[in-house]
Amino acid sequence: MNMIKKLTRRKNAFFRSIKLHLINRRYRHKAAREAFQPHRIKNVLLLRLDDKIGDMVITTGCAKALAEKGYRVSVLTGPLCKQILSGSEYLENIHLHRPRMALDELKSVQFDAVIDFDDVVSYERFKLHADLGVPCVIGFNKDSYKLFDQSIPFFDENKHVTERYKAVLNLFGIADAHYHYHVPFNQQEHDKLRRLLGDKTDDTRYVAINPFTGSEDKDFSREQVVELIDALHSLPFPVTVIMIGQSAKIASLALENVIVVENSTINSAVEIVRCSDLVITPDTSIVHISRALDKPLIAVYNKRKLKDTGLPGYKIWAPNYAKAQQIICDTDFISAMPVNDLVKAVKQRLSDLQ
Fold first, then answer.
1. What is the pLDDT of residues 141-171, one digit of tens each?
2. How far is CA 133 from CA 34, 139, 246, 257, in A?
3. pTM, to two decimals
4. Cα–Cα distance measured from residue 325 to residue 300, given in angstroms and rounded to the nearest whole number
5. Confidence tier at 344 by pLDDT (50, 70, 90)
6. 174 falls in which pLDDT band (50, 70, 90)?
7. What is the spatial order of strands in the sheet that 136-140 belongs to?
8. Domains of the chain, CATH where assigned
């Protein structure tokens, strides 16, 4: 059975590569690229199809900057990103992406440009662009594909991921000196959290801990989390620990003396970060939410390279703001890292806040 599955996957991959070639061949006689003329663009669609929160949070800086210059900006993305963007007044629409979705609604908007922030080269992605038929398709590192009307070269392990988005703004002639992320306020989740926290003394410090990520090698272990919580409660001032993460996964840790938000969503996470004096996380989505809200942060990274590009994630996806401290561990798994340095850093940051 496994052999049959492998053969089926290989067959499907082969036919997708053929279909990708045919799409590219369709554009072989397309005229040479012209200089970009932003004055022709009024209505822009941003693609964030992977539904990754960290990517989407960073994209908000580009979206808002375009909107502030008068462009009508919409986003095509997945359900999690649509949830976190809800209430973003600078966006015209947030369209939900689904595999093999009908495109009638999107085509009726008559976008002037679509911006694809990914390096993805696949039949499915190219077919989406071809079927949308937007007059100007903007992408990254797509110089050899005539489907793309503008290709921005960007492949530098020494540049932070925000430089990618600044390059888009530069293409539109927009100054990028201050690139800020934006996450909207969610009243319902905020009120829910405030009820859980109750009334505390003025000297209470709120510390958010996010133990889980999308990759096992980046997760904290239960032992690390327990040691961190014990260290926080040993400080000479009151500390309230709030856990960030899916309720069931947090419950599996069987922690004591912490606040857990039931039925937690990504908007719950945003409001926890908003209410916290310090955030501790190995997850880049929470890192970038913390930056959006300019919160004191201790972020833990390993040295794993990005799967798609081979670039060092701890450089490309670093917090990159003044209130953040980055700890880079030498172990392949963050869960194998001695927690001493993290505890020391946490105690120092909280002492500085007193």
1. 999 899 999 999 988 888 999 999 999 999 9
2. 18, 15, 39, 55
3. 0.91
4. 9
5. very high
6. very high
7. 93-96, 72-77, 43-48, 113-116, 136-140, 150-152
8. 35-171 (3.40.50.2000), 187-353 (3.40.50.2000)
